[in-house]
């Protein structure tokens, strides 16, 4: 009976570690996509150092889970106590780190509000100054997503740096409609856009556009994270039970 329970525990341990292996592969893939994605998501992340750091943390966590899932599978199949103990300790550390990251993300969620981005845009945006990382990043975001400011063109009416450097322009060039939404895309009518004619401007704010485009991915990432945490918890339980059962 005890041998049957141990055998069952071994195969359950293998199954859970296989899911950890897959979860790590998914996190690794998402992390790589966020960092190298050419559609503009990288610029959004780069605009906030906290998010940019989070992308690399996700990449590292994915790589570690990928490796540990593989080690856990090997430890279960071979019934190696040293490997199982090593697996348990590292999964525990990763579990605590992920839990801490989730708590910190909840605490500092106000840093991602519409008001925060509006305040930062008005305070730091300098228009077409490509030597300024903040302005260049925002230009890339607005061109890529076909949007203007955080809430809309009205954001630039009270942006002191932009008004000082571009007193004759109502909006920056990045807010002007293009035939193709890339930096090389031809303007529909640049002069009319800069003069304030609505029909030649991208009128929708970037906050709404980006939120709508990323909402699916946010829920998917959240569900994936909860699933990975649950699997890690069960894997630790099975690893310790298998460790204690091996003679």
Q: Overall 3D geometry?
A: elongated
Helix content: over 70%
Total beta-strand segments? 0
| Count of helical regions | 9
Oligomer state of the chains in this structure: single chain
The biggest sheet, with number of strands, parallel, antiparallel or mixed sense and barrel status, is: none
Instruction: Look at the structure and give the mean pLDDT.
Output: 79
Q: Helix-strand pattern, N to C?
A: HHHHHHHHH
Q: Ranges with pLDDT <50 over ≥5 residues?
A: none
Strand proportion, as a percent range, falls in under 5%
Distance N to C terminus: 15 Å
- Please identify the structural class as seen in this structure: mainly alpha
- Gyration radius (Cα, Å) is 25 Å
What does this structure look like?
There is one protein chain. By secondary structure, the protein is an all-alpha fold. The chain is about 70% helix and about 0% strand. The longest helix has about 40 residues.
């Amino acid at each position: 009976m005890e041998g049957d329970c141990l055998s069952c525990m071994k195969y359950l341990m293998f199954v859970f570690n296989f899911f950890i292996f897959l979860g790590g592969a998914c996190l690794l893939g998402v992390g790589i996509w966020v960092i190298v994605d050419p559609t503009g998501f990288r610029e959004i992340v780069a605009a906030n150092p906290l998010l940019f750091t989070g992308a690399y943390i996700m990449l590292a966590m994915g790589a570690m889970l990928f490796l540990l899932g593989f080690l856990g599978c090997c430890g279960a199949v071979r019934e190696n106590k040293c490997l199982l103990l090593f697996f348990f300790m590292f999964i525990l550390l990763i579990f605590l780190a992920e839990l801490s990251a989730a708590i910190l993300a909840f605490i500092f969620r106000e840093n991602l509000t519409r008001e925060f981005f509006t305040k930062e845009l008005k305070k730091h945006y300098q228009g077409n100054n490509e030597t300024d990382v903040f302005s260049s990043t925002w230009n890339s975001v607005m061109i890529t997503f076909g949007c203007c400011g955080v809430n809309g063109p009205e954001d630039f009416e009270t942006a002191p740096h932009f008004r000082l450097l571009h007193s004759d322009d109502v909006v920056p060039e990045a807010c002007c409609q293009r035939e193709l939404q890339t930096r090389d895309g031809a303007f529909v009518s640049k002069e009319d856009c800069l003069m304030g004619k609505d029909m030649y401007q991208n009128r929708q704010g970037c906050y709404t556009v980006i939120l709508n485009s990323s909402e699916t991915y946010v829920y998917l990432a959240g569900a994936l994270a909860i699933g990975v945490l649950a699997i890690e918890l069960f894997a630790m339980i099975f690893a310790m039970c298998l460790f204690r059962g091996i003679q």
